[in-house]
Amino acid sequence: MREEKIKRILEIIPGFLSWFIIFSLIILFILKPLSAIVVIIVYLLYWVARLLYSSILLLMAHYRMQSKKNNDWLSMCKDANSDLKFEDIIHVVLYTIYKEPENLIIDSLNFLKDTDYPADKIIVVLAGEERAQGAYDKLKAISDKFKQHFLDIIITIHPKNIPGEITAKGANATYAARQVKVYLGEKGYDFKNIIISCFDADTCPDENYFSCLTYNFLVNQKRYHTSFQPLPIYSNNIYTAPAFARVIETGSTFWQFIEGMRYEKFITFSSHSMSFKTLIEVDYWPVDLISDDSLIFWKCFLKFNGDYKTYPLDIPVYMDIAVGKNLLDTIKVQYKQKRRWAWGVENFIFLAQHFLKKNEIPFTVKFRKLYQILDGHVNWATWAIVISFITPLILFLGKIVLKNSLALFNLSYINSVVFHSLSFILLLCIIISWEFMPPRPKGVSRLVYVSFLFQWLLTPFISAVLGSFPSLDAQTRLMLGRYLSFTPTPKTR
Amino acid sequence: MQEKYYSFLRHFSFWLFSLAFVILTPVIVYYSLGYKFDIKSKKFLKTGALSIKTFPRAVTVYLDGKKIDELTPGTIRELMPHKYNLVLEKEGFYPYNMEIEIKPSLVNNIDVFLIPKIKGVEKVKFDFNIYGFFLLRQIFTEKILIFTDKGIYFLDTDLEGIKKVSEQIFEEHLANSIEEVIANNNKLIFWNKKNIWVVDISNENFPSTDTANPVYTAGKSIKDAFLGLRERYLIVNDGLKVIALDMDNLGVSFEIYTLNNLNAKIFYDARSETLYIKDKIPRTENFSLFKIEIMPLIGGRISNERRKD
What we know:
The complex is a heterodimer. Chain A contains 16 helices and eight strands. By secondary structure, chain A is an alpha/beta fold. An eight-stranded mixed β-sheet of chain A has the order 3-2-1-4-7-6-8-5, sandwiched between helices. In chain A, helix 2 runs parallel beside helix 14. The longest helix of chain A is centred in the last third of the chain and has 39 residues, at 363-401. The N and C termini of chain A lie far apart (48 Å). By secondary structure, chain B is an alpha+beta fold. In chain B, 17% of the residues lie in helices and 43% in strands. In chain B, the strands form seven sheets. Chain B has a four-stranded antiparallel β-sheet, with no helix packed on it. The A-B interface holds A 34, 38, 41-42, 45-46, 49-50, 52-53, 56-57, 60, 63-64, 67, 261-263, 404-407, 409-411, 414 and B 1, 6-7, 9-10, 13-14, 17-18, 20-21, 24-25, 28-29, 31-34, 48-49, 51, 75, 105-109.
């Protein structure tokens, strides 16, 4: 009972903070307009500093990725100075599949087959759902097509309505991983040598991904206390996706790119890899929560009393941009996907609840981690609203209330500095994003590059509408106890 | 580069930006509120600002005789609160001189339109004696109508393209008394307080008359005139009555309303064919507003006639 109350209080905190920031600025402006202007000036200056710092991180991340670009990872694996042998390392690549079309999965497996890593060291797991009719037959047909290319292909079908589970990707992945454990045990593999990669059905790894992953696994002294995070690049359907969807997903890539520079804050996101031994030790991915990709990191963090990190591999995995049947549907799909990502705020509740019982982790570490999650999510839900809506509103109404106030006059100037900072980071993104561009398919006009350039003009609109609102929506639902159900992102090509 | 260097660089950047934020924020906030630290008195002083916009741009600003480095548009900050003499100068324009007051924590917004210095005056290329002129605006064109000792002419607005439209000569005192001119269906309609004239400008072979005969002479004084009834009639308030003059058949007119007072005014809305009249209410000292919708009257009569048939 007490635990339930604590959980409810924790669920209220993020949404309450976000709404408090939004309303307090408006109420402060009504009561003391000049004070509100001063607060907004401080807030905008904070964002100028933050954006410029992010630009530095972006440049550093880009430089680091470039410096690793020409590494011969496979040779490095063979020569790696490690207590493990390269030859003993086996990869389990787990694809969670729901209703994704067959051609999409085939494309992903073709990419996997064509990596530079020996395919006879890769076991593919096609984890289907009983909820999707004809799942086994579809996966069997795919398996038959690719069986000879890999060490083995395992098909698992996650039964529906297992007590204690929600309909989410994590439940399927966990069910499949348990089957894999039995399979590997029977075959006599040592779990210490197994690296598992949990991929979405549309994940196409870069040709160096597995050799880079293996090398970093081999040389990492704390390999069992480390997750390995590729750089998710949403580009599989970039030439056919609407411009605004391209901008959003490229923004997500850059966010991961920047986050990858902050080791102590970096956590797993979407497709990721880790030791199978560790996965078993932490009892797999959560089956009753939506944000399985980030929660697996926190499960490990708690299990090892804070001694757990995510290592950025700086090697991409290519994924699909979420699109719908038409433009409006794509906006809906994007909104729902971002809201699901923003539901990652449940990490705060999960972690805080466990921290209360965990005395082995120092209080300062607990506080820093909780602050890190809250800071990220509350800023996500508020910054675009404050910058795109509240500041212009205060500038507009301020002209009526304060008329010739110098502070108001300077606020409009500082506001323009924020937008110049945004433009600067945007320019960096435009330049760097060209490097992530897949080759132009035949039949697509060169003119598409013009739209790729002008698509960035949509950024202010997108950051306002599809930036903060889904996050605020997710936090408000959590605050009101209206829990989100898992909505898989439709993957069509 | 090794991870430790990345880590160093990242931490360095983080602390640099954090430090910059912590140090600069109070400075910028104070500055934004108008505070300035005076080294001499070692005190914070409250200042104001002056924001200047001009048309044209790039005007030199002098404040109390001191030239400001920045050209317009711009903002001059950290001004001590008191009155200043502001001079705006740009070559080819008259200098703009004004007194402004700067108040603490406030911005004085100045928006100035500079007048160019007159360099040259153009003159029409002919030497007729011009008695009067009117600018006639139509949908796509703009013409100048001139009354001269040689007749009536149209001119383009660049003073070129002179074209004679009538041989009729209006004496100087008549031309000067004309209050308004309307160009309609190849006719020039114009009037003064007493008379209304119509000049046909469609005829290339100008009529031989060299005297101007009015088509209507007011009983009292012409106060208002409007084109109405599908631009066929001129609706005139002549002080005593409202009459409709047929512009196609000159000489035909109808009295459509008798006014009760000399100070009555009319307005004719050609779009809705409605006549509005401000007139005195009989046997009172009060004026009121009256309305006559012409088209329903015409429509009503036509339908009555059809019913009779």
